[in-house]
Amino acid sequence: MKNKILILLLLALLVFSIVGCRDKNPTPTPLPTDYIQIPEYVTNADRIEYWHRQVGSRWVSDKDVTGYEDYRFTPVEFILSEIPDVNNPARIIKKTPYQGDCDDFANFNPYVAYAKLGYDCYVVFILNLGNIHVAHAISYGWEEKEKLNCHVWDNQLYRGKWSNIESYINTNYPNWIIYHHVTLQEELTELFKKGHLEYMPVKPESKRPSKQVCEDEACPIN
Fold it and tell me: Is residue 7 over pLDDT 80?
């Protein structure tokens, strides 16, 4: 009997050593900071809006761009002119770079702030209580670990520093409520799992003879 009790105790200790010591909420791996190339002049929060002005960023509906009522872009998809359709792999969506709707800006802006400025960033989806069929997406980032300055971006515009995102929403969208509030990492990870692009597509190397080969009279005659 004593041997059986000893064996059970050893098994319990073994299970605890394997499972019990694990962190139930492990720290997620940080997002890479090289999904897109960010201009050197983006040195603070309002320079993200300056970048939008430089490239002519504009709000357009998902329907006009993709043909879908709702289709979210990752940061790299936002700046590309052609992207694969995750709903139809045989289709390529042709679009104008730096154009999209609110949730596309809400994914792009905080990623720039995270990757270039080191901000702790979030995406917020709000709902109009006067018309529940109308929703909007906004992004924000904390400049410091102490969460003293909340920088807000709304579409292509920088909306300044606020005490928190609730303060911004209550002031600018008084009849709206937050219905979805996620970290930037959670938002992008969801899109990546659906097959959206993380990085620029790698173009295959051209099979044409190089200019040097042609100069050496080695080019085939067509």
Answer: no
Question: Residues of 199-213 as b/e, b for ≥16 C-beta within 10 angstroms?
Answer: eeeeeeeeeeeeeee
Give dist(CA 78, CA 102) in Å, integer: 12
CA distance 141 to 164: 10
Q: At what angle do helices 102-112 and 184-193 cross, to 10 degrees?
A: 120
CATH number of 47-193: 3.10.620
Q: What are phi and psi of 155, to 5 degrees?
A: 55, -130
pTM here is 0.79
Report pLDDT digits (tens) over 134-184: 999 999 999 999 999 999 999 999 999 999 999 999 999 999 999 999 999
Q: What is the pLDDT of residue 132?
A: 87
Closest CA to 152 of 174, 132, 137: 137
Q: ∠ CA(84), CA(31), CA(67), 5° rounding?
A: 25
Q: How far apart are CA 21 and CA 35, in angstroms?
A: 34
Beta bridge partner(s), residue 135: 127
Residue 130 burial (C-beta neighbours within 10 Å; 0-12, 13-18, 19+)? exposed
Q: Supply 166's token pair.
A: 């609730």
